[in-house]
Amino acid sequence: MDIETLKKIEKPETETMILNMGPQHPSTHGVLRVILELDGETVVKATPDIGYLHTGIEKTMESKTYHQVIPLTDRMDYVASLSNNLAYLLAVEKLLDIQAPPKAQFVRVILTELTRIASHLVWIGTHAHDIGAMSVLLYAFREREKLLDIFELVSGQRMMTSYFRIGGLAKDIPDEFDSKVREVLKTFPDKINDYENLLTKNRIWLNRTVGVGTISAKDAIDLGVSGPVLRACGFGWDIRKSNPYSGYDEFAFDIPTGKKGDVYDRYLVRLEEMRQSLGIVKQALDGIPEGDFVERIPGVVLPPKEEVLSNIEALIFQFKLVVEGFCPPKGEVYHSIESPKGELGYYIVSDGTNKPYRVKVRPPCFVNLSALPKMIEGRLLADVVAVIGSIDIVLGEIDR
Amino acid sequence: MKDIILKKLKEKFTKSILEVEEFRDELTIIVRKKDIVPICQFLRDDPELCFNFLSDLCGVDWLERKPRFDLVYNLYSVPKNHRVRLKVRVGDGENVSSVTSVWSAANWHEREVFDMFGIKFEGHPDLRRILMSEDWEGHPLRKDFPLTREEVMFSHNKDRPPRIVK
In the beta sheet, which residues pair with residue A294? Predict the structure, then answer.
């Protein structure tokens, strides 16, 4: 045996292995590919690769009128479409310097909070399923069905609702709305307790989540992380409190925060958020004011249907608005809301024509996902699945 | 608050500020391209301003104008709760200094701007395309990049490969 071989036996060379996770991996919530460099089972380097769902929504928006953009926003974060609608509309309303009437604002708050619950239900179901708790998925989707029924009741659509319009809502809320929402308010707190019973003290769940994917608040802010992932680090920043929109300052609610910033804390924060959302929905439902559901601004908002059918002026208005749209003043605005995932912002540049010159979406998932390497490098391969689930990503929004 | 931001910036970077705009209660400051990194550093580190959160970074293409592109930095201060927008004008083919050293969040945003507009960032740790595939030609969000679609298939053209309509 020569000296070189002897050296190799005494001190074996280690080499890392490249593992491709995704894009068709079931736990990547869509088509996310993560290129993992592994040393044994430890992740040395993680490189997320995105863009598989890129559909050029921002480019398409530049060739649509302001009204035609609304359905496109639904298709980004497709489990929380009403939040997307709201963020875009608030930006356009800021551009036009108009405000929705109080009734529309209250209904917007109720529906976006229900959307938050629906989005968190999808998250808790799929996240628990990833880690191995199958039954939570079935329970969560059963409850989500009731919320989708409410969306269908008001807009006729279960997921791609496009129910919010510039200046208010697409149509008035139906009479059954109140009783349907109250039914959810009555039954839902027990369901959250059910999820808690299944998971919060479950030893397998604790082993898979406590101390996994930790990130400090300072790092999280530096990386632009927002939403429940940031709040789990103990930093209580919520845009509903810091920059209230749509009348959120009128409702009393708490911002749940975690301590360690690990996967388990994110789980606890989101569970508590669902409870707080129910509280907001209850307050808003009790206080829905009388009045019109849309601010009738001539040249921006469609005239009422009865007038269109009986009055030639209104018909001309409707025709012009549908064909040409409206022209907001030149300028640029940025408006952000607290979507279920974090800060969802719209930056709109208007050049004074009937189509937006540029629309930039600030998707919370895109930025939160960019913090993934920080959370998983140096940890075990099995933790990657738990961490991806805990960030709550929707690839439709990341890739746009 | 806007006055304080402007005053502080004007004291420190008198020559760098080209224009100041205010629209719908939002402050936009257009600054010289070569000073963007020191200005960002100052805005982040000043204890009164404390812009520690890069909300968004994006490009806008003004095809006819010279310099052609706007780079837009939407900044937010989490502890102080105020916003400001910085803007830099970039010509076609010019490079900009990367702000990844100031906020790590800029990493993916700058990759997206590079992918969509073809603006290169100096000092970026990993400047690759992010949304489009690596062999893609052109930069989709430029205004001279056409929206295309495929010809609809009917019985008369079903045997031909679909034509791209520009």
Answer: A168
In this complex, the residue of B23, B107, B133 whose CB is nearest that of residue A332 is B23
Across the interface, do A222 and B52 touch by the CB < 8 Å criterion? yes
Q: B40, B80, B100, B108: which to substitute to probe chain A, counting the most A Cβ within 10 Å?
A: B108
The CATH number covering residue B71 comes to: 3.30.460.80
Tell me which residue in B54, B78, B85 faces A334 most closely, judged by beta carbons: B85
Highest mean pLDDT: which of B6-20, B92-106, B135-149? Answer: B92-106
CA distance A285 to chain B (A): 30
- The answer to whether the peptide bond before residue A23 is cis (omega within 30 degrees of 0) is yes
- Within 10 A of B24 (CB to CB), how many other CB atoms are there? 14
Question: What interhelical angle do A102-131 and A263-286 show, nearest 10?
Answer: 150
Domain ranges of chain A: 3-47, 56-399
Instruction: Could you list the beta-strand ranges (E) of A153-217.
Output: 164-165, 168-169
Cα A19 to Cα A38, A47, A351, A391: the distances in Å are: 7, 11, 47, 21
Q: Is B72 on the interface with A (CB under 8 A)?
A: yes
Mark yes or no for CB contact B147/A59 under 8 Å: yes
Domain membership of residue B109 (yes or no) is yes
Instruction: Answer whether residue B161 is part of any domain.
Output: no
pLDDT tens digits along A64-86: 889 889 999 988 888 888 999 99
Residue B164 maps to a domain: no
What are the E-state strand segments in A41-88? 42-49
Q: Torsions phi, psi of A46, nearest 5? A: -125, 130
DSSP percent split of chain A into helix, strand, coil, nearest 5 = 50, 10, 35
Give the best residue of B50, B51, B72, B76 to mutate against chain A (max A CB count within 10 A): B76
| CB contact at 8 A, A341 and A115 | no
| Distance separating alpha carbons of residues A225 and B105, to the nearest angstrom | 8
The reported pLDDT for the residue numbered A337 is 92
Residue for token pair 């406590």? A210
Q: Which domain holds residue B81?
A: 2-135
Fold of A56-399: Cytochrome-c3 Hydrogenase; chain B (1.10.645)
Question: Per-residue pLDDT tens for A263-307?
Answer: 999 999 999 999 999 999 999 988 888 888 888 887 888 888 888
Is B28 in the A-facing interface, judged by CB distances under 8 Å?
yes
Phi, psi for A104 (deg, rounded to 5): -60, -40
How many domains would you assign to chain B?
Answer: 1
Q: Which tens digits make up the pLDDT trace of B130-157? A: 888 888 888 888 888 877 777 777 888 7
CA distances for A385 relative to A75, A212, A226, A263, A382, angstroms: 25, 11, 20, 11, 6
Of B54, B61, B129, the CB nearest to A224: B54
